[in-house]
Design a protein that fits this description.
By secondary structure, the chain is an all-alpha fold. It has seven helices and no strands.
Length: about 150
């Protein structure tokens, strides 16, 4: 508790600790080689594992996006600028209030509100395009991005 400042939001402080702990453990797991019994590994499996080894480690955020079931949602989230993606995560996934997000990101509440509005508008536009492509919306329907 030596880093907690009295009078600040303890929920946001604890969430930040939890997030950083998860990211650290994820990165540690990515660096650790996979352990398997050598009897069960074929030459073809070994060649495939070596050919597909990533040069750069994936981030924890990318792992979360990969876990999303729908490709369009994942691609729409990936297309957002980092600052918008983080705010959407805090507001819509972690259910933080504007004030808590502002404290976490060290920005004014008004900036949180405007960035979240723009991020949601961008997501809505991209997902509307995907909905038209899948036939859920007609090409002339309002996608909710006006204004």
């Amino acid at each position: 508790f030596h880093t907690f400042s009295e009078g600040t939001n303890i929920r946001a402080w604890l969430f930040k600790i939890l997030t950083n702990t998860w990211i650290n453990s994820y990165r540690t797991a990515q660096r650790r080689p996979e352990e398997v019994l050598t009897e069960s590994v074929t030459d073809a499996q070994l060649a495939a594992a070596l050919a597909g080894s990533p040069i750069e480690l994936a981030s924890a955020e990318l792992a979360a996006l990969e876990a999303m079931g729908d490709d369009e949602v994942r691609h729409a989230m990936e297309a957002l600028p980092d600052f918008q993606r983080v705010i959407v995560y805090y507001a819509d996934v972690a259910c933080f209030r504007y004030k808590e997000i502002a404290e976490l990101m060290d920005i004014p509440v008004g900036t949180v509100m405007s960035r979240l509005h723009r991020a949601r508008r961008n997501l809505r536009k991209r997902l509307a395009e995907a909905a038209v492509a899948r036939g859920y919306l007609g090409s002339g329907q309002d996608d909710g991005t006006a204004a």
